[in-house]
C-alpha cells in the first residue's frame, strides 16, 4: 500500500473508534456513530481500503486497546454487540464494492450503495446478539426479543444517518474528484 492509503486506512479506523464514544446508551445496544464512519470508509476508500480500515479498528480493539463502546480485548467477542463490529467490516466492503460500480455519485445512487451496507450490519449484528444472549449468557430470549433490543429502536435513525451520509458524500465526492483525490485508490470495475 502507498503511504496515502495507509494514512486513509488509519484515519477511518480512528474515526470509527471516535464514533464508538459518541453514543446514546440503550438497554443492551447503545446508539453510536460508528456506522457513519464505516459507511464513509466504504464510500471514500472503496472496498479494499474500507475493509482494511474496519479490520484495523476491530483488530486494535481485540488486542486490548479500549476503542469499543465497552472497552476492548480478546474477550470482547463474548459481548453481545460484537456482531455489529463484524458487520462494520462487511458493511464497508459491501458499500465499497457497490461504489466501485457507480457511474454517477448522486444522492440516490449513493443511498443505493449505503443501505445494503446497513442491512449487512443488522444481518450480522442481530443474530450474534441473539446467540450470545441466549446460549452464552443463558438469557431466556427469543429472536424477536433480540430484534427489539438490537434492530427496531435503531433502524429509523440509521436510515436517516444513511441519508445524511449519502447527501454529504454526493456533495464531497465532486470536490475530491476535481482535486484528483477521489478514486486514485479505488480500482474501477468494468
TrEMBL record:
Transmembrane ranges?
A: 29-46, 51-69, 75-98, 110-130, 150-169
The UniProt entry lists the main location of this chain as: membrane
One annotated Gene Ontology cellular component of this protein:
plasma membrane
Instruction: Provide the membrane topology annotation.
Output: Multi-pass membrane protein
Task: Give the matching Gene3D superfamilies.
Answer: 1.10.1760.20
One Pfam match: BioY
Q: Where in the cell is it found?
A: Cell membrane
Extract the InterPro entries matched here: BioY
Which keywords has UniProt assigned to this entry?
Answer: Cell membrane, Membrane, Transmembrane, Transmembrane helix, Transport
Highest taxon above the source species: Bacteria
Q: Name one GO molecular function term.
A: biotin transmembrane transporter activity
What the record says about family reads: Belongs to the BioY family.
In its UniProt entry, what is this protein called? Biotin transporter
**Organism encoding this protein:** Anaeromicrobium sediminis
